């Protein structure tokens, strides 16, 4: 890489980092923040129109492949067969469909049955487990101690109140459909542009994949990138090039959650029918909501692009053990006021499938608006939620900067101009936050630890020099918004979705690599190394 997007200029590191960030800001999307997705509800009629269009497209496909003079029996069998192909993510083309349709309705029915056998197994397992739970009595809590009984009673109340809230939100249904608007910027685009322009081309349409030469001849960007396999692969997988007809489906359907990883394009511990169903029933019953990223041509979530689960975390206004400082005062204040209400927030788990930052950010924003706004404190994952390698506890920080500093136990001074100076280090480690608080008016004399969170970007960090920055174990795409100058180490290990080092700071040492499963992939360098420079150290955990 050239210095334009590579090494921070030693003479003017702050200026160079800012230029890189601004370039990305306006390059693709141009939102106010580097990663910015929003969901807009489309309403029941518009959702029905999606299903109507899907059926029409199936009918058109069937009509194009049916033999002349076909009767209703063959037409129905052919339609069922095509729907089964869609549900099982099989490809369709006129040649193979014509050959299949010529075999007649009985053969098509057998093919359809064979295709759907795995999904039928799931449906039978779901019905069996739901039947076994119908009419079941309350669990025996006689062996619980007094505190356990109180916690169980609080959760039961929280689940009941949460169900009423979800019933209102979903209008009694199981799915909500949203248009996804992605105003994010691609952290890869500046690197692709640099490579393309060095070959004498200019980018015409990044998302569609076209560039042009000085004679206005159109050339595919992928063809220009062939001499750089790593850049080509990353460009091909860049989520910002996904078509703009994307939607989000929020669902609390047993079947939708049971199919979280069952017969999908990705694998997880829920790929077996029993575990898929048992987890789905347990989690839907206590308030879990799934969010799927889909094409608007796939309203029934047959071939989703990605998924992220929203899970409830509850506060315990009576439980002060382990709380210190500002949080202890918050609990005491509630207790004095006789406020024993359990607050519930919804937080996203790690995305699976296509890691589309605008999608994840949009779901986070939706949760903030509909569930979390105004709620601060420490929250625990609701009992009964599967939590493999996820946070059992999450923290909601106050929006006010001074209260936030108090909440995290920072030793600070408020300056005459309203800014703040933190004496020593500032730690936001392990809070489970998905967005940084606004620290742009905070000067930190020590270092900053924001590791072990769910951060998609570093926006919000101070723009004055700091001693060190530990941003490891997050979901960073790049380093946009990073503090420009770090006197010591910049640790960004185990950010599995890192695409580029765009916005990288000047630092004395860089700690990089994804070594969660293989510590040998972790390393240090005096240069900022990313997946474009050393892909073998950044295998990621992408599931496609």
Note down, in words, how this protein is organized:
This protein is of the alpha+beta class. It has four domains: 159 residues, no CATH class; 79 residues, no CATH class; 188 residues, no CATH class; 49 residues, no CATH class. It is 35% helix and 17% strand. It is built from 15 helices and 21 strands. β4 and β5 form a beta hairpin. α2 packs across α4, α3 runs parallel beside α5 and α6 crosses α12. The radius of gyration is 26 Å and the shape is globular. The chain starts with 12 loop residues before the first helix and ends in a 19-residue tail after the last strand.
Short description:
By secondary structure, the protein is α+β, with helices and mostly antiparallel strands. The chain has helices at residues 13-27, 43-65, 72-87, 94-101, 105-115, 117-133, 146-169, 189-198, 221-224, 229-237, 254-258, 273-285, 325-336, 357-372, 401-407, and strands at 37-41, 175-182, 202-205, 210-212, 218-220, 246-251, 289-295, 306-314, 344-348, 352-353, 377-381, 393-396, 412-414, 420-422, 426-427, 442-444, 448-449, 469-470, 485-491, 506-512, 523-525.
């Amino acid at each position: 890489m050239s210095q334009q997007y590579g090494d921070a200029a030693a003479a003017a590191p702050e200026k160079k980092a800012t230029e890189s960030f601004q370039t990305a800001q306006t390059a693709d999307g141009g939102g106010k923040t580097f990663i910015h997705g929003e969901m807009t509800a489309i309403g029941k009629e518009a959702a029905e129109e999606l299903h109507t269009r899907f059926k029409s497209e199936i009918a058109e496909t069937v009509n194009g492949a049916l033999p002349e003079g076909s009767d209703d029996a063959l037409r129905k069998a052919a339609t069922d067969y095509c729907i089964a192909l869609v549900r099982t993510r099989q490809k369709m083309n006129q040649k193979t469909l014509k050959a299949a349709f010529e075999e007649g309705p009985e053969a098509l029915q057998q093919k359809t049955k064979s295709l759907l056998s795995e999904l039928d197994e799931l449906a039978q397992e779901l019905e069996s487990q739901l039947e076994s739970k119908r009419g079941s009595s309350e669990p025996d809590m006689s062996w619980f101690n007094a505190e356990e009984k109180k916690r169980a009673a609080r959760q039961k109340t929280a689940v009941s109140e949460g169900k009423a809230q979800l019933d209102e939100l979903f209008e009694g249904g199981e799915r909500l459909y949203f248009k996804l608007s992605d105003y994010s910027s691609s952290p890869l685009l500046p690197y692709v542009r640099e490579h393309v322009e060095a070959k004498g081309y200019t980018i015409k349409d990044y998302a569609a994949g076209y560039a042009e030469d000085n004679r206005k001849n159109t050339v595919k960007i992928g063809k220009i990138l062939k001499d750089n396999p790593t850049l080509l692969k990353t460009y091909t997988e860049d989520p910002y090039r996904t078509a703009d007809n994307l939607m989000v489906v929020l669902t609390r359907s047993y079947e939708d959650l049971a199919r979280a990883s069952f017969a999908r394009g990705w694998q997880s511990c829920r790929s077996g029918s029993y575990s898929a169903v048992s987890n789905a029933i347990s989690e839907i019953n206590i308030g879990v909501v799934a969010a799927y990223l889909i094409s608007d041509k796939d309203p029934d979530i047959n071939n989703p692009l990605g998924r992220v689960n929203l899970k409830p975390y509850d506060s315990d206004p009576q439980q002060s053990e382990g709380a210190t400082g500002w949080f202890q005062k918050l609990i005491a204040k509630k207790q004095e006021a006789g406020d024993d209400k359990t607050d519930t927030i919804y937080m996203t788990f790690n995305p699976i499938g296509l890691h589309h930052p605008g999608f994840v950010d949009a779901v986070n924003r939706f949760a903030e608006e509909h569930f979390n706004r105004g709620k601060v404190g420490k929250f625990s994952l609701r009992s009964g939620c599967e939590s493999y390698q996820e946070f059992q506890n999450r923290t909601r920080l106050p929006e006010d900067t001074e209260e936030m500093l108090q909440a995290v136990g920072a030793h600070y001074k408020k300056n005459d101009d309203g800014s703040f100076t933190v004496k020593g280090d500032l730690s936001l480690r392990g809070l489970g936050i998905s967005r940084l608080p606004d620290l742009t008016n905070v000067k930190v004399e020590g270092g900053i630890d924001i590791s072990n969170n769910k951060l998609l970007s570093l926006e919000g960090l101070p723009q004055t020099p700091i001693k060190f920055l530990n941003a490891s174990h997050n979901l960073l795409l790049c380093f946009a918004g990073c503090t420009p100058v770090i006197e010591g180490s910049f640790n960004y290990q185990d950010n599995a979705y890192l695409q580029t080092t765009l916005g990288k700071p000047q630092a004395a040492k860089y700690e990089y690599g994804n070594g969660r499963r293989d510590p040998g992939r972790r390393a240090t360098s005096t240069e900022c190394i990313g997946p474009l420079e050393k892909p073998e150290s950044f295998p990621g955990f992408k599931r496609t």
